[in-house]
């Protein structure tokens, strides 16, 4: 197989990315060479194309187009991207993902020699790649089979499709590493479409995109961006497997009747791609639809959609909002945006969890870092879903719910009064007021004053001051200094101040009346040195058990929950908790670990073991409200983290003295 020059590789990349016939002159201009040179390069490319899987087709007067199967496109993409003999880590990762994709999507066996020739790397590199693929495949219960026929990844069809999905997502992200954000760039931008076309073919992507759009019209709502991309990829994989006559293997007892929408999608897929779709495949399509999250009902059918939601689901959402209201001490019962948002999210979420088809939350780390207290509150509120539906929540889904609740809190933050101090004239004053009202509507402007009048102003009832000149106040009223023209940076500073400082002022008085009732000095361990989260949990559960607050089975339920999803909050705090049925008396045990301990990949310095009995005379909601306020206070959490004395730790937690 001939070596390609860098120009020829660039030409190959351009051909792969084009989905229509293009004139030779277009490529000549892009490469800054003559059309004759392009013709010569095309002749060289023909020598490296497999005539059965990839061909260069010409139409006189129109141009040229590359026609290739999905596996050939993968091979050619790798060839076009290959550089010097030493691949960098990213290209190695991409190569491995492409190899895995090829082995799964073609249904053919391969060999070290074939792969070495296809990917232009040494046999030693290919052996290392196959070892990586073998480890990766084991995550999906796949086996790398090597025999005289060749090498292939083998396993159950359901597992192969899961692995294919993972391989596609990795290739969308240009290799293994950080999870690809399926919402990046919107629904299906040009770059994403080209990547998918490179993996599955342009016609396939175009037809499946149309089918998914038809599904939205039939359902009378739009899928959110993540679900839209997820459904698109799942259906492309389904078509790929059916073309290879690989049918899904499901137990007949699990088959349920597909919805009319799923039946319609199956008929459209069968017609477009000339494949047979049995009841098991229709059930898969039905499952993909039911697991897809909503963006919004189409405007014309919003009321009808709300009426169609199951009453049980409405009751569940209202119950969660009630718990949230009681915990936050804010009435959210009339929060329409929160109610509708949860309705649209929770139904597909429950379906995903019941069928062990989780989604990856690309923003999880950021959510836990920025909204750790709300994440903890949501984790505890989610127990109502677990109890009612017999499922276990994972941290990715909890992260999505956290956003709904955090947004509701910020929408309902109380209006703050401010006075604007301006050294300019009336025009400048009005400009400042108008920009602030436009971009920070939650602020009420009580007055606009020149500096000379401001000095005699009574600041009673004023939460903070915005000024275009530096000023110092004798009381503790905060001042935000901005420029006379109110730049974008000024608006950001005012927003940050409002959310971070003013909101904190509402909570700065730590008075844990209810939390203090479930704390005991004997359950507070300061300056602990533990080597694992298991050791930390065992220490605290043993203390509780010895004092008669939990039964012997409680610890096992804590570990089961930790095995499903770690209870770390991303801010150095963990809140392990077990099933309420094994709680004899409500108590919370606390451990500070100054050196930290690994908690499912995150360093944790403070552990709250929560054992609350819902029917206890103490209000669990009031206790959790106190705990939320504690977790949301950086000042108090920092004091707990460095505490080395058991009694002092108890006093800080119970609010007994500074």
UniProtKB/TrEMBL annotation:
Family annotation (Pfam families): HTH_11, PRD, PTS_EIIA_2
Example of a GO biological process term: regulation of DNA-templated transcription
GO terms for MF: protein-N(PI)-phosphohistidine-sugar phosphotransferase activity
Residue ranges annotated for the PTS EIIB type-2 domain, each copy included: 416-506
InterPro entries per UniProt: BglG_antiterminators, HTH_11, PRD, PRD_sf, PTrfase/Anion_transptr, PTS_EIIA_type-2_dom, PTS_EIIB-like_sf, PTS_EIIB_2
Residue stretches making up the PTS EIIA type-2 domain: 517-656
Ranges where the PRD domain occurs: 308-415
SUPFAM superfamilies: Phoshotransferase/anion transport protein (SSF55804), PTS system IIB component-like (SSF52794), PTS-regulatory domain, PRD (SSF63520)
Keywords from the named record: Repeat, Transcription, Transcription regulation, Transferase
Protein name: Uncharacterized protein
Naturally occurring in which organism (per UniProt): Paenibacillus terrae
Organism lineage string: Bacteria, Bacillati, Bacillota, Bacilli, Bacillales
